């Protein structure tokens, strides 16, 4: 039985197969749903793709069911969405349901169905792309923009227009790859502003519903952006010039052309005429210019000139320019600049520069008269020297340096209104160097002679150097005290020395301090005080010293012997107390403001009175600065080794010795007055030997002072001597008796005299000073030194009258009148 | 300008074409036309306090110069006798012209004077080079 069945089946199968094989027909292939889409959430469509049709006409049917319902519906509309599609309209679409869709393909032979497709309407929403995209370029407020418009995607159901789409637009220049996307919103138009002119843009747009996906991009639209076109800007007329006062040209400067080709026209009218003309010649003078030839040029009339710029978008006119040709003449530079070197006989050669006026200028008829100007400078120089030449066309140059190279330029201008032309091209001048034989010979001779002289001098120096030096700079003589060995002096205290000098107990040993005298005040009423101010033994010593000054060999007076001076110039040197070597020194050299000046007496081999002049400080009188409130009459620092000036009571004129510096307003000197002089002596001073390195000044008083026998009893004035301690600056203040209250001037009205002349030296230790009327009260210059010198020589015929010349550099500050006279120089027995 | 009515050559060629006498007469007429207005102007500005003193003196100086120039031209051209007629007629014309001149403002006056003096200068130079060409012409 079974065998019969299987075989029958096999036969049937075979028959079927052969039938198939014979006819090529079979049941249809399986369709496939390719897509389901909703355009607007209210309808949707599905498309399928058929399989093979099996050779027979195939019918396709779509069946769907909703959610989990059992009921199966068939597609309501196969046509709307096109072939192989099914359109579900509103009534059949539920947004919130899931559709189970299958497609069945049926043909005569069999049926085949696709796989089921689950579709949720909300998830398949995708609108169509917008349509009707149109592009336009528009200009608004001179800004160019692109205006894009489109329509929303069409719907089969026209009625449903209430959908709100959101749009997106994208554009790019045609050649570029990057899109620029812009979100538009719900509008169906959009204006794009940032556009490049002259570029072709491609634009697309797409839309989306509130849910779902973006539609496809619409088809591309292209648009060409034109170059921004605008009317041109206003041109400006820059200048008008006439080169020869017969024609003229005007130039203008165009503004921006607004993107389009622009035309320029120049229009003018003349003064007094209404008619407007156009420029006769645009070309001759170049672009943007107008050339007026002779026919069109009138003088002494004002032209009203304007330029108009025109392009497709509009036109614009420049401001009017008024011009009168007479005033705008600017010639060309001169030409034919030539140089000629002329060498007249017996004179220095000179250069002649010639030129000619520019070719166009008609100077011959006098219509245009030119003036010229030169500009000259050496080649390496910085500044030009301008020379106005006038109307001539040549110039002679005399003052150029031979051998140098010069550059010269010329320019011209009309003699009346007008402007200077450009400078002509540079012309180089090379002056041939002028070697004068004579000059060279002179220089050679001079050189030879000077070298000879130098040789001779050096030879002499070598041979006799010492003597010459000695001749020029005489050495300061050493002390030559008879009976005293210089070595004794050098060794300091020495009994022998002292005894030789006749001093007792000098130098003081233990009572140095006592000897330091604060100050010496010498006043009439204080005669007695003066002496007591000295130390006990002092006066007597002084007296003794004074009286026993008998060494005739020594340099007496205020100047110490040179060796001593040199030794003891320092502040703290031991002072051999010799009368001769008495010095009034200023131990303190620098007291603020004090001046200790150094005067170097240049008296040939005389004793020199040395003052250390300290000029660094202000030259106010130390009095002012002394802590002690001395009436600052006179203060001086002197490093006079030994000088004692005593006044003699003899009938010799006693000239005061000016010891200190004299300020201009302090004419204070230590002056000793002569007895004979009944004039008011200003002051007198006596220099005491200082035991130590202090300056002691003994002031003579006008009243007789028995303690100081050397004081001039007749002296009317006194000097107040202020002596300061050693550690301070020693100063001696001399004060005029009369002006005891004063601290300033010493001026004695009328007969104030300065005793600056040393008339003689008495007793080898007394300096006689005389007043010198020639000497001004206030010395303000160095002159008085010379004066004094003269005076000295004038008066009593002193021998050996020397004078102390202050060392110029130092003493220049001094007011004169305060030089020390070297008393020693007046000592006849001196040397 | 009150002298605008005068027919004057406007360029070099015209100036060179005019015969000498006519040019001379023209120059003299111009100078004459300014004589009176200048003096009137001087009187006018004397009352101007704000002008500096040297302006006033300069104006006077210019009037004198114009007068001297006129005299000089007359003399050099030897036209003294001939110009009597011309002067008379130009005097008459000058009077009417000078009325016009009084109406001008100061700046216009100066502008016109500058122009006319330039004219006179140019004509004289042309004349000079015509008569005496060797002297820097």
TrEMBL record, chain A:
Highest taxon in the source lineage: Eukaryota
Keyword S-adenosyl-L-methionine: no
Subcellular location: Membrane
Membrane-traversing stretches: 440-463
Alphabetical list of InterPro entries matching this protein: FN3_dom, FN3_sf, Growth/epo_recpt_lig-bind, Ig-like_fold, Long_hematopoietin_rcpt_CS, Type-I_Cytokine_Rcpt
Pfam families referenced in this protein's UniProt entry, alphabetically: EpoR_lig-bind (PF09067), fn3 (PF00041)
Gene3D superfamilies the record matches: Immunoglobulins
Biased composition annotated in UniProt, kind: Basic and acidic residues: 583-597
Gene Ontology molecular function: any one: prolactin receptor activity
Coiled coil location: none
Function of the molecule: This is a receptor for the anterior pituitary hormone prolactin.
Free-text note regarding domains: The WSXWS motif appears to be necessary for proper protein folding and thereby efficient intracellular transport and cell-surface receptor binding. The box 1 motif is required for JAK interaction and/or activation.
UniProt name for this protein: Prolactin receptor
TrEMBL record, chain B:
GO BP terms: positive regulation of receptor signaling pathway via JAK-STAT; response to nutrient levels
Example of a GO MF term: hormone activity
Pfam families registered for this protein in UniProt: Hormone_1
GO cellular component: extracellular space
UniProt subcellular location: Secreted
Sorted UniProt keywords: Hormone, Secreted
PROSITE patterns reported in the protein's UniProt record: SOMATOTROPIN_1, SOMATOTROPIN_2
Highest taxon, organism lineage: Eukaryota
Record carries keyword Phosphoprotein: no
Keyword ATP-binding applies: no
Protein family: Belongs to the somatotropin/prolactin family.
UniProt-recorded name of the protein: Prolactin
Organism: Eudyptula minor
